[in-house]
Design goal:
It is built from nine helices and eleven strands. With 257 residues, the protein is an alpha/beta fold. The chain has two domains: 96 residues, Arc Repressor Mutant, subunit A (Orthogonal Bundle); 134 residues, 3-Layer(aba) Sandwich (Trna Endonuclease, Chain: A, domain 1), CATH 3.40.1350. The radius of gyration is 19 Å and the shape is globular. A hairpin with a 2-residue loop joins β8 and β9.
Length: 257
């Protein structure tokens, strides 16, 4: 296959570059999963080669022994893979002491990795597609979800918007966001845009306390369409009964038996 500055690109390289267009940024663990590496040393070597060829941009988050490498798609990498270069606009090799956007995007990516690359333990359920929103979901609604996934199941397509909360948005913001999701459902805008009749909104928080606060805020507006779980539960048990409605404590699955 064609190369860049002496590097011969393999199919796996091109697929990884395409995935980075969705992820925006990837840490080492996510890179291993998405690119399909089984060896840390091979992954490190290949990421270094792709970076030196100008196809990736590499940054570092944290300091000292806790510092970790991050990768983002460069303009050149996007051109080679034929995808938009939705990546971080940071200087090559920059050290990021703290970056909310990066932390939030890595959390979103962890769910993407869990739903697309992990084995789904449910008969007849398969991953269909993921959408990363770089603009509002529809022109008429100022709503930009963190992600959107569709799964094929025996009962039909299961559509899920994703909202990851790291505790930085006020509850008034969440009330307004809830109303916008209701508008998306009731106005017909969702059906026109996605050619499906219904969806759910998954809200993930980093603690049970924050999750309960969000449930209380959202159920003051609606008891429909929203489901809640901690970020850790969703990462590790996405397809299990770990989800709660706005009201009540019963744990449910997102998929019908």
């Amino acid at each position: 296959m064609g190369g860049s500055k002496g590097i011969v690109l393999q199919l796996r390289d091109r697929e990884f570059l395409k995935e980075l267009s969705l992820l925006s940024v990837s840490d080492h663990e996510q890179t291993m999963i998405v690119a399909g590496f089984g060896s840390i040393s091979r992954a490190n070597r290949r990421m270094r080669q792709l970076t030196q060829a100008g196809l990736l941009r590499r940054f570092f988050l944290g300091s000292g022994g806790g510092r970790k490498a991050l990768y983002s798609l460069s303009e050149k990498g996007g051109q080679v893979a034929g995808v938009p270069a939705h990546g971080l606009r940071r200087s090559q090799g920059a050290l990021l002491a703290a970056d909310f956007f990066v932390e939030h995007q890595l959390a979103v990516n962890s769910i993407y990795c869990a739903v697309k690359f992990a084995k789904i333990p449910l008969d007849g359920v398969s991953f269909h597609r993921w959408i990363a929103f770089h603009q509002t979901v529809t022109p008429e609604l100022k709503l930009k979800p963190d992600g959107y996934a569709e799964f094929l199941s025996p009962s039909g397509t299961v559509a899920l918007f994703l909202e990851v909360d790291l505790g930085t948005e006020g509850l008034a913001v969440w009330k307004e966001k809830t109303r916008k999701y209701l508008d998306l459902a009731l106005s017909g805008a969702y059906s026109r845009t996605f050619s499906l009749d219904r969806f759910r909104v998954l809200v993930l928080a980093t603690s049970e306390r924050r999750l309960e606060s969000l449930r209380k805020t959202i159920r003051a507006v609606t008891e429909k369409i929203f489901r809640f779980a901690t970020l850790e539960s969703a990462r590790t048990q996405f397809f299990s009964p770990v989800w709660r409605r706005p009201n009540g404590d019963q744990l449910e699955s997102l998929f019908e038996p």
